[in-house]
């Protein structure tokens, strides 16, 4: 059920016009777990294009500190 809720939240976020301009960490962290996953970052093309570089420790998610390095 938790996965369904996350999926629905991501769909709702992606369908809003503001999602494509999202550059705020808290906006992208849909599930509020303190990190931005690739699926959460997917709504922002700019962040997705930098994701691998920003993910300094290679754990597959962006912390707020890693996210703050986005150009």
From TrEMBL:
Keywords: Signal
Domain of life the protein comes from: Bacteria
Pfam families, sorted: EF-hand_5
Domain EF-hand: from-to ranges: 42-71
Record's signal peptide: 1-21
Record keyword Endoplasmic reticulum present: no
The name this protein goes by in its record: Calmodulin
């Amino acid at each position: 059920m938790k996965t369904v809720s996350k999926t629905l939240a991501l769909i709702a976020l992606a369908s809003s016009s503001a999602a494509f301009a999202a550059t705020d960490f808290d906006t992208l962290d849909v599930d509020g777990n303190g990190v931005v996953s690739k699926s959460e970052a997917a709504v922002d093309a700019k962040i997705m294009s930098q994701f691998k570089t920003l993910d300094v420790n290679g754990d597959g998610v962006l912390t707020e500190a890693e996210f703050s390095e986005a150009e």
